[in-house]
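Technical appendix A lists one of the benchmark inputs used to test multi-chain prediction within the project. The record comprises two sequence entries:
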Amino acid sequence: MKPLNSIVVETPPSGIRRFFDVASRMQNVVSLGVGEPDFATPWRIRESAIYALERGYTTYTSNAGLISLRKAIVQNIEERYGVSYSPETECIVTVGVSEGVDIAVRALLNPGDEVIYHEPSYVSYDPTIRFAGGAAIAVPTTAADGFRVSAAALEAAVTPRTKALFLSSPCNPTGAVQQRSDLEQIVDVAVRHDLYLIVDEVYDRLTYHGVHTCMASIPAARPRTILLNGFSKAYAMTGWRLGYVCAPPEITEQMLKIHQYTMLCAPHVAQYAAIEALQNGELDVRAMVTDYDRRRRFFVRGLEAMGLRCHAPDGAFYAFPSIASTGMTAEAFADELLQEERVAVVPGTAFGAGGEGHVRCSYATSLAQLDEALRRIRRFLERRGCLPVGQDGRPMEVQA
Amino acid sequence: MTAILDILEQDSHATPDRIAALTGLPEDVVRQQINEWEKSGVICRYKTVIDWERAGYEPVHAFIDVSVAPERGSGFDEVAARISRFPEVRSVFLISGGHDLRVIVRGADMKQVANFVSERLATLERVTGTQTHFLLKRYKEDGDVFFEVEADHRLMVTP
């Protein structure tokens, strides 16, 4: 047989997959490995979807999505960030943000074009860019900088082939939130080198410290920004597969072609549910954010008390502690923790080489589970003599 | 500070240390605030939510809508207070609509509740009528759901 597509063949499967396979064969696992809310979709949203099904909204919608949903989306962005988009020509409803990433890079890139992104970051950016024929250039971020990316670091990676900068804030897996001043400098870089800005802001509603800055709200960024967002995280709607893209019409026009030939449209029922989410879901979002914030404080404090240094994650629902105190690699730590204590975390290296020395722990799980996870991690560290030692020479008590 | 009340309302066992970890407030501030609220009556008392049916008991509850001829000077208050003093009465509300008071009564069995209504409640001076609704099944009460909660359908590890 003739060889398959070489770019695809050479792409390794997601590092997360292996942990999933091992963990899902075990009993009694406390999983901190889940990258989605532990809340079910708020009932009012599910109930509207049921109603939509009852009324027979089971057909295709227009390629770009229901106009009533697109109107609600752009109105929400305008109210929240003061940026206006045309619902007719500047907004496409996508099958999750993942599709948004795909059609954005496919619309922008010619073979060999480079996209600079920061790492550690979400697992799909690098492969999606390469599947589109582009080159994914990673700029590392570090714990010392709170995993925020600097304009200088991005600019240093710019070459004549660079087409776009790809940012995600708040960031999965680090929880880092870019400050407005940082973003303004990054926009300057984009303007200076005539680069597009692709921004994944799917965690925009989940910030606990300061406010999220929408990239497009910076005036110089607006004409060159492809804004990606969705319903998965804010409204706990991961399985509905619904996201959206907002960008200038000359870009969405091209993106829409890929979307219409590959996806046709996002699921009709999910679009109805999303209208309800935008119109009446605000209190649900706030309640979930309050809950995440409490668990975040509780869990980070618990990790710190065990000597696992953890920069304060300002957004998303992940802690990304350093495991330097153990001297182990991220992969070995995650493997042995799962085998010995049945706690599933994801090695930082699954999110790029820059994630070495860290593991991602999702705190989107119940307090009881977080309690149990902290107990088990403590036992794991104690066996290895890795707990911080108090003045009496004995391992210190966990403050959890 | 309302976060402290919010957490205690969900879990009256939450210790000041735990509340401090959840809110980021200093532990002694939490402890002091709770003391103050206990003294001032903001925190009335600590209760436990019990699913009595699951525990094997089946007390009978009834919602009784009561029509009252209000009194000059005190309106409904005096009658409502009088009804409230019976230990089998769990709640008393003044409501709008066809009746005036909604009373929730708990008894060991139907007969006990029926006796209470006919002999105690209906015979009170100024009570002009009652309508009794027996509780058949409890689905949700004060925010607590009494049917099977949804399982976590998430995969063990996802990106």
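Chain B touches chain A through 17 residues (CB under 8 Å). Residues 1 and 74 of chain B are 37 Å apart (CA to CA). Comparable benchmark entries are summarised in Table A2.
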